[in-house]
Amino acid sequence: MVLDKFEDDNVEVVFVYLPVWEMFFSMHVLADSEHHLYQRRWAKRISEKEPDLVKSIIDLNEATAKWLFVIDGPKWSQMRQMEIEELISNLQKMNIYQWNDMIEYTGQRMEIDGRDAVIRVIKEYYERVFMREERLLRPYLARIMQKEREVCRRLGIWRWCEGIHPRLLVEGDCLVFRKDREYRYQKAHVRRIYAMASTFVNPHLWLYKGDGELEMVKEVLTEQAEDDIPNHCVLVFKALGDHTRLKIIKLLMQGTLTTQEISLKMGISEAGVSKHLRILNQAGLVRKSMKGHYVEYHFLTERIDFIPYTFYEMMM
Questions:
Q1: Strand ranges (E), the chain
Q2: CB neighbour list of residue 299: distance below 8 Å, 6 or more residues apart
Q3: Is the distance from CB of 224 to CB of 312 less than 8 angstroms?
Q4: Which of 72, 167, 197, 270 can pair with 68 through a Cys bridge, CB separation 3.0 to 4.6 Å?
Q5: Which domains are seen in the chain, by residue range?
Q6: How many C-beta atoms surround the C-beta of residue 172 within 10 A?
Q7: Over 60: is that where the pLDDT of 226 sits?
Q8: CA distance to 23, 68, 126, 281, 283, per residue, from 299 (Å)
């Protein structure tokens, strides 16, 4: 799903949400959850709910290049924009020669039974697990990328890329990816950059290079504490469970305001406003900053965007 497209420094920048990419990387996480510290709780929840399915994902890890065989392969550019159902349908239509041509770059070859087993696990995983996960993640990640798009337009594509990962460097006319070794790409050779966000990519620095194309994947950390009901979730719901605080939020969603401005608009004392703002700040729903002699407050909409996913994760 293309969210925006623009040109910067002779590069076509495409902000996207890619459900197929996110699904395969979630399978990559399940196949080696110990390596992905910020998704352990999620992986544990899925493993407890679907132990046989997760075992199948682990068993096929090597055969599928750690479940990256589609999104890291030369055919990916043809599949990048597909919805998951369309991708599964396309995989099912491939004969064994087309399938082995797709995975040739991994050094693997499969018999028909092996291919069918991989497709069956993908289909079962989507229908039993990821379809529901994706309904929650799609609006959240799309909202994140809308904000990142604004940052990118303001900073420029290369400065935005610098914030993707500590091991991605922009040095003069060159992009440097520090992975198992250094991969260097001249800016002049990059014609298009696909920019996206993922809740599963951490701790990896993703590198996919097509013909003049790069993918930049920004991590979005969603892991919660091990407590059954994380304390920060309690603070969020407590902050939202008050009529006056909801009215303050409604005002702040229209723009940044000071304590004094909120007090005048609502007709309550500054002390009363400050008390409510303190609770909202403790819950991480607002950010405060100094404006001259006054403190102004900005509402963090991304925390609200993430509530459905947090609630689902917490209660399941």
A1: 2-8, 11-16, 168-171, 174-178, 182-186, 192-198, 213-219, 257-258, 286-291, 294-299
A2: 249, 252, 253, 285, 286
A3: no
A4: 72
A5: 2-219 (no CATH), 231-315 (1.10.10.10)
A6: 7
A7: no
A8: 31, 38, 35, 9, 11
